[in-house]
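Following up on my earlier thread - several people asked me to post the actual chain instead of describing it. Fair enough. Here it is, all 380 residues.
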Amino acid sequence: MKNPICEMLGIDFPLVAFSHCRDVIASVSRAGGFGVLGVTAFSPDQLEMELKWIDDHIEGRPYGVDVLIPENVSIKEEKGVTIGALAERVPQAHKDFVRNLLMKHDVEPPRLLEGGPLGRPDAQSSLQQDAALHLLEIAFRHPIKLIANALGVPPQSMLDMGRAHGVPVAALVGAKEHAVRQVQVGVDIIVAQGGEAGGHTGEVSTLVLIPEVVRAIKPIRTVPVLAAGGIMTGRQMAACMTLGAAGAWTGSVWLATTESETTEIFRQKMIEARSRDTVRSKCRTGKYTRQLRSAWTDAWEGPDGIKALPMPLQSLISEPALYAAQRAAERGNAKARELVTYFVGQGVGLVDSVKSSRVVVREFMEEFAEALADMQGFVP
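Reply from S.P.:
Thanks for posting it. Predicted structure:
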């Protein structure tokens, strides 16, 4: 396909797949799309191992990495803050709230703020610029073809790294004014993410956001736009491209694949869910994220809830707690299953089965072609 995204990334079909799972990345890229690995949760050593595995299994196809360097975060101006130091800032009231919620669902509370999937108390928070840039330095030891940032304008040092390695820099936005700022500082690709999306997201719908962003940045500089938010099919992708997007950035659709990092329990909950069964809440990270509604989200958002802590403190209590609930659910605890949740967009209502990533890419291509054929049929 002759397309600016295809030319920039060295691919044949402008379908970008964001995932935290290396298997998804390799499978999507091998199938003709472009996988982007979310690396924020990895330690430097873990990231090196993950990227080495991808290099060994991706058959020379291109892929990229995504980091989080928030513009607005409570620890932005601090230096060398460790996870252990952050854990000491979590109020006892929040620990008690989480502990009581878990016990209500027969889940043994973990040693909150220690061990579990967050571990490494002496490690620096990867949400700080220095730590995130170190992850990028490791990534550039590998043949990556894209770096992306979310939650604000990437620092100049990240842009400089991309230029030095000849790798385009992408940035996620949720409003047209955010896109204008990104283009002005020099990003190469805009990912315009509508409020339907899973994870950190704004409020403007994809249908409105794409033409707004395309129109707003056109007078400044020619920058391709990837559409994101609720895109689960090739027909949706084609629709977004008629609005001016050069391709699609997708996330939730890969959570229901056989290669995904999600558990069988969550995949089944995705199949059961309607598009209305997601909620935009701060209860997972401290910033608004769209996630599957569950007893966890209901507790925080209900009349007896407690105000979420700012990023990154909220994750220090949410991640160990939800990990404990997941493990309990896997052992057959039905009450714990009620707590199970994960980041997912409103497109979850379109999930009706679990498929391989390769099959999903193929279906995107087929439906995209069908949509184009249908549109050509409308031409007199």
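Residues 357-376 form the longest helix (20 residues). That should answer part of your original question.
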